[in-house]
Design goal:
162 residues; alpha+beta; Aminopeptidase; 4-stranded antiparallel sheet; 3-stranded antiparallel sheet; 28% strand; globular
Length: 162
């Protein structure tokens, strides 16, 4: 068990635009291979577009005083085509591998959930897979379904009431 980082700040990416390239790179390192886009520029551009402040999509970043980005999470209207009947969705939740199991992801999720509740959302959704399912369950999320996408990717849908 690692200790939580006391020097960590959580803030809206819109309030810290200088962090957009680093957040985009962190996401690219995590997912920048097929079936996802492989271009670093694509990930930075999407991160910039998801850096809203008062309306979806919005993104939070976890960072240290020196500007080092440790993680990020977004909230958007939709994530996957197969489930456009519900909204909003958690997008791009990632913590730097060297920083995992230190409470960063939980702090990011609490920031996102608090903002969403303040905006009047009563339920959130996430589409994920692998070890991330356990992370969301530890954060109080419930599995609602699992399926295989047309791409062959295994997907688990979780939800959380606010």
């Amino acid at each position: 068990m690692h200790m939580e980082n006391p020097l960590l700040s959580i803030g809206l990416l819109a309030d810290h635009p200088q962090l957009i390239p680093a957040v985009g790179e962190l996401r690219w390192r995590e997912w920048g291979r097929p079936p996802e886009p492989e271009s670093l520029d694509w990930w930075v551009d999407v991160t910039a577009r998801e850096a809203g402040r008062e309306a979806l999509p919005v993104t939070w970043a976890a960072f240290e005083a020196d500007g080092s980005v440790l993680g990020a999470v977004g909230l958007g209207e939709f994530d996957i085509e197969e489930r456009r009947d519900r909204s909003p969705w958690v997008l791009g939740m990632v913590v730097d591998p060297a920083q995992r199991n230190r409470g960063t992801g939980g702090r990011l999720m609490r920031a996102l959930e608090g903002w969403a509740a303040g905006q009047g959302y009563s339920r959130l959704w996430v589409a994920t897979g692998g070890r991330a399912v356990d992370f969301y369950r530890k954060c109080g999320w419930e599995v609602t379904e699992s399926f295989v996408r047309t791409s062959g990717e295994h997907m688990t849908i979780l939800t959380r009431s606010l």
